[in-house]
């Protein structure tokens, strides 16, 4: 089975091999329902527009965790270094993950199926829609 990105008409070339991979792709690459913003990294300001601030965002928890360990954690190849001198440790990594996780307040309030005329509305409509469209693709 193949699950093409619903935004293929706009240039996205992804063809997922499973419904879960397809749902994760849409939710992390196009809709951005949640993400992790590293608050340990310094922000940068656009040189052409001082109102535009850039943050270090990660669309998946695993990528954010790797960033925390590599950029803010104690180096693993130097066991003589004191890990308490680093911001991220094995003991507090879950706190960083939880603190930095951002979600949008609401998913899209209304959406429609790509294959039939069904309309989805309400608080749980986005997940219902994704499951429904995924069943068409299966």
TrEMBL record:
<dbReference type="GO" id="GO:0003700">
    <property type="term" value="F:DNA-binding transcription factor activity"/>
</dbReference>
<protein>
    <recommendedName>
        <fullName>C2H2-type domain-containing protein</fullName>
    </recommendedName>
</protein>
<dbReference type="InterPro" id="IPR039970">
    <property type="entry name" value="TF_Grauzone"/>
</dbReference>
């Amino acid at each position: 089975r193949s699950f093409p990105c619903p935004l293929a008409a706009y240039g996205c070339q992804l063809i997922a091999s499973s419904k879960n991979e397809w749902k994760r792709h849409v939710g992390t690459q196009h809709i951005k329902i949640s993400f992790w913003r590293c608050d340990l990294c310094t922000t940068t300001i656009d040189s052409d527009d001082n109102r535009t601030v850039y943050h270090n965002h990660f669309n998946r928890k695993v990528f954010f965790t790797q960033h925390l360990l590599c950029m803010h954690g104690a180096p693993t190849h130097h066991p003589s270094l004191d890990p308490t001198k680093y911001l991220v440790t094995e003991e507090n990594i879950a706190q960083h993950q939880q603190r930095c996780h951002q979600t949008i307040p609401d998913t899209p309030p209304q959406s429609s199926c790509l294959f039939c005329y069904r309309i989805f509305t309400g608080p749980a409509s986005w997940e219902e829609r994704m499951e429904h469209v995924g069943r068409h693709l299966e």
